[in-house]
Design a protein that fits this description.
about 100 residues; alpha+beta; two-stranded antiparallel ribbon; 4 helices; 2 strands
Length: about 100
């Protein structure tokens, strides 16, 4: 989702930052954070929040339709990942993204 965010927000990838956490200390839940990379923000986060359903739908489609078996740079691996892409689970990503879709 973080890698696809610039396509939805129509911004440069360097204009945003993000991270995913197995358990974020503030929420005590698995958490994905996407934020404006510009100091004080320029509205990108707000746009992504408003477009969250679209962003999660695009991400699920991309991951589910990728021809790889376990995950690859085209669908779930990121060269910018601070955790060396661990853990990675393509099927779990599809399932989680599917649950994010509105009923």
């Amino acid at each position: 989702m973080i890698a696809l965010a610039p396509l939805v927000a129509m911004c440069d990838p360097r204009d945003i930052g993000g991270g995913s956490y197995r358990m974020f200390p503030d929420t005590r839940l698995p958490t994905i954070i996407v934020y404006d990379g510009c100091e004080h923000g320029i509205g990108i986060s707000e746009k992504l929040y408003a477009e969250f359903d679209r962003l999660s739908r695009i991400a699920r489609s991309l991951v589910a339709q990728c021809a790889c078996e376990r995950g690859c740079p085209a669908c779930v691996l990121s060269p910018r990942c601070g955790d060396a892409n661990e853990p990675i689970d393509k099927q779990a990503a599809v399932a989680i993204l599917g649950r994010l879709q509105p009923a």
